[in-house]
Amino acid sequence: MSSSKDREQPEAGGGTMSRGTLLRRGAFAGIAGASITGGLIAPVATAEPAAADTSTALRFLFDWEYEYITAMAETIWPTDQSGPGAREAGVATYIDGQLAGSWGQGHRFYLNGPFFQPQSTGHGWQIPMTPAEVYRAFLPGFDVYCKTRYGNPYPQLPAATQTQALTDLSAGTANIQIGGTTAFGVTDFFGMFRENVLEGMLSDPAYGGNKNMVGWKWVGFPGDPMQRGDPYEKYIFTTKAYPYEHKPLPLSKPAAVTGAGLGAAATDAPAADFPNATATSASTGMSTGTGG
Fold first, then answer.
1. What pTM did the predictor assign?
2. What is the pLDDT of residue 166?
3. Could you tell me which residues come within 8 angstroms of residue 165 by beta carbon, excluding any fewer than 6 positions away?
4. N or C: which end of the chain has fewer CB within 10 A?
């Protein structure tokens, strides 16, 4: 990744943190043990209250929840000199679709006890709540915490205070009960949410996030080279520069529609965005991100 794409940003606890470092660390963050203190939240100079994207009908989130998630995601991946952030990429729309779909509804989760408090990672989901239920239980508690601790709802806080509020989550210092249980704490929620933000920035646009492929353009991911019929294999493991590195294409439309349906997110991209798509040209392969 070139240095121009890896510019440094201030860290919450002092020093600097680049988007590249954020992404490299985020790629390995899991739910359990995902608390990272003072370094994964990049503050921006100003904070603006987020508004729900009325062009996209919400499938699970209420408007105020959508505003919260938009503002929180923008704190984690802000718009800066390196490019657009989570708000412009539609990360909250991606999360809304995932919560409404099979992942959020826990269709493949084991939700019957007994559960236990693991001492290490790798023990899976250890609470009888779905991810959608966790989000719904957590956000009102976080709203109360922000109003009590900082005087305003999260979207209305200054950028530096928003950074501190999320740092409270990552450090585990915020006292927020999730569904009346401590088995899934604020650090667990922060790890899950932060991972969802990265997914929304880097998944195929068919899932609702990564609008205009802003995340792919930033990391230099080509998307689906076969849309152009490119012999992409000639550029893999070589020093030869791929000419469309920062001009990615999404999955062909039939494949995108199929994948989005499976992932419980909808695509409203015009047909012109899929120049080589035909009714029979769908590939069943999925691109970067989770399908729910």
1. 0.71
2. 96
3. 142, 145, 146, 149, 150, 154, 157, 174
4. N
Closest CA to 265 of 104, 107, 96, 143: 96
What's the rounded Cα separation, in Å, for the pair 29 and 189? 12
Amino acid at site 137:
A
The pair of structure tokens assigned to 217 is 């353009």
Beta-bridged to residue 16, according to DSSP, are: 10
Decide: 97 and 266 in contact? Cβ < 8 Å: yes
On whether the CB atoms of residues 174 and 168 are closer than 8 A, the answer is yes
**Cα separations (Å) of 180 from 109, 115, 156, 201?**
20, 15, 27, 31
* Residues 243-281 pLDDT 10s: 777 778 787 666 555 555 554 333 344 444 433 333 333
Question: How far apart (Å, rounded) are the C-alpha atoms in residues 153 and 150?
Answer: 8
Beta-bridged to residue 9, according to DSSP, are 17
Decide: 101 and 263 in contact? Cβ < 8 Å.
yes
